[in-house]
Amino acid sequence: MSEFLDLNTSEMFWEIVNKNINIGLLPSETINFKESNGRILAQDLFSPIDLPPFSRSTVDGFAVKAEDTFGASESMPIYLNVKGEVFMGQETKIMVEAGEAVKIPTGGMLPEGSNAVVMIEYVDYVGEKMIEINRSVGVGENVIYKGEDIPKRKVILNKYHKIRPQDVGALAGLGIIDVEVYKKPKVAVIATGDELVSPENVLGVGEIRDINSYTIGTTLEEVGAEIRYVGIIPDKFDFLRESIKNNLDCDLILISGGSSVGVKDMTVEVLNSLGEPGVLSQGITIKPGKPTIFAMVEGKPILGLPGHPSSSFIITQVIVKPLVEKIMGIKEKRIKCNIKAKLSRNLDSDKGREEYVPVRLIESAERNYIAEPLVGESAMISTFVYADGYIIIEANKEGLNKEETVDVYLY
Fold first, then answer.
1. 271 with 255, same domain?
2. Residue 387 host element (H or E)
3. Which residues contact 346 (CB under 8 A, 6 or more apart)?
């Protein structure tokens, strides 16, 4: 296999991906709303009811006509007759007239004729059936009206939306029990390397345990994928080819190792042997992660990832996660969680390659953050274990200066 002579930039890589993978092609299924967190909606969701279904108080107090309280103050209180009381979870048929008030709890149904609630803190009893109010309220104050939160027939969540815990709460409040979502994408993770053994094995001379399968798999499980851990495949053409063929029922195949230049690195040849179009991108201008491969076989995307743990981890974060989200049908742009920090020292970089550097965050005496680069060989996983996130050195830069403000993208 030849060296990577025509490396693609990140932009060029995604152009190739977008030409070959369509969004939202997974079949859908109907599930209970309690199991929907993290799933992708397969249809727009409309509110079947008004929420709240009745006008209600947001405080403990007295339901009143707001205009009856205008001008009220501690020195000039307003006096109103108490007509009755609203009870939680019960319908009220009390009609509030001018000069009247009705006691009401938080969440209680607003009586007809009232348009505001005075908080209990601003009310004193001056008799069994009379109160004095020492603060005025405006129309609608301390009240949430019927349908004000979510009106009936409103689109509350759009197709391709990734459901979050707060969305599950909204579904519960609206009584939406059955939710149509796309099925989880199935991702096969294949580890290659004659030196690799399972984490359960006792190490022999020259052996190392498989790290990448589990950093890749657990990362993608957080995104919402269903992971098939294929296991370790020897560095042999026929073994790798057979393993790929056996997993083409998955929506994505990831091959850890076998993508860089070397005697045993035959991944490109294997992929091309499985049919057109085969390998579409071989190498990307990212550090670490240069030897990343993208291929299509029988309509299924396949990625060849670097074998070094840190390279594999970065490519999983910046390439594989967005690719899985695309397969899942997520159209909403993923907002990276980042904070500002000052760099603790100078950093050199290879111009022409987008570099990802793990950093540890340290809080300064001024309660600002300092980003301490954790630089190590790409074969090391410890730099990412101790890191809080990473910074990006753009391809057109030769490095960053000490105390330069940087964006730290948190894991």
1. yes
2. none
3. 399, 400, 401, 402
Cβ atoms of 57 and 63 within 8 Å: the answer is: yes
- Contact yes or no for 354/316 (Cβ under 8 A): no
Whether 122 maps to a domain, the answer reads yes
- Write down the H helix ranges in 250-387: 267-273, 309-315, 321-328, 382-385
3-state secondary structure of 269: helix
Find the helix or strand (DSSP H, E) in which 362 lies.
Answer: strand 354-363
Same-domain status, 211 and 140: no
pLDDT confidence of 350, banded at 50, 70, 90? confident
- Select from 120, 82, 87 the least CA-distant residue to 100: 82
pTM listed for this prediction: 0.80
Task: For 220-307, list the strands marked E by DSSP.
Answer: 226-233, 252-256, 277-282, 286-287, 293-297, 300-305
Q: How far from the centroid of its chain's Cα atoms is residue 176's Cα?
A: 22
Domain encompassing residue 371: 338-410
The greatest distance separating any two alpha carbons of the chain, rounded to the nearest whole angstrom, comes to 95
> Could you give the CA distance from residue 363 to residue 370 in angstroms, rounded to a whole number?
6
Q: What stretch of H or E contains 338? A: strand 338-343
Say if residue 177 is in the same domain as residue 40: yes
Report in angstroms the alpha-carbon separations of 88 from 103, 110, 111, 202, 331: 11, 11, 12, 64, 42
Helix 212-223 to helix 321-328 angle (10° resolution) is 40
pLDDT in tens, 65-122: 999 999 999 999 999 999 999 999 999 999 999 999 999 999 999 999 999 999 999 9
Q: Are residues 189 and 290 both part of a single domain?
A: yes
For residues 327 and 186, the answer to whether their CB atoms sit within 8 Å is no
Backbone angles phi, psi at 194, to 5 degrees: -65, -20
Looking at residue 52, the DSSP 8-state letter turns out to be: S
Pairing of strands 369-373, 338-343: parallel
